[in-house]
């Protein structure tokens, strides 16, 4: 348990159809995070949700949405995440992002 450390989790809420230039926004965010040397990023697709518009997006077969919720999670040191925020702000449009302090537990590495 000696590998505990504090980090910042950046969680970004967008729609599946959100774009940055010619590519999906979630893809552009992950690539920019990698380019910035951040520790890691994960994209999660939600089966249901709603945002500022109040419109419910769902994957139910009878009400199939083409804009399901997407959450992009990026984790790194507070300093690295803070340095990435201007890039994020320029990319997310009407998306929403949250920051939280997390404790990182690293597994055993061979």
From TrEMBL:
Pfam families in UniProt: DUF190
Protein origin, superkingdom: Bacteria
InterPro entries hit by this protein: N-reg_PII-like_a/b, N-reg_PII/ATP_PRibTrfase_C, UPF0166
Family: Belongs to the UPF0166 family.
PANTHER family, A to Z: UPF0166 PROTEIN TM_0021
Name of the protein in question: Uncharacterized protein
Natural source organism: Paramagnetospirillum marisnigri
């Amino acid at each position: 348990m000696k590998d505990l450390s504090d980090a910042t989790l950046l969680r970004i809420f967008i729609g599946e159809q959100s774009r940055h230039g010619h590519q999906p926004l979630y893809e552009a965010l992950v690539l920019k995070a990698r380019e910035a040397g951040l520790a890691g990023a994960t994209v999660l697709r939600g089966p249901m949700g709603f945002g500022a518009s109040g419109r419910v997006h769902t994957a139910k077969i009878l009400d199939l949405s083409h804009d399901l919720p997407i959450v992009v999670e990026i984790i790194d040191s507070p300093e690295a995440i803070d340095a990435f925020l201007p890039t994020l702000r320029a990319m997310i449009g009407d998306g929403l992002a949250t920051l939280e302090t997390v404790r990182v537990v690293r597994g055993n590495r061979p």
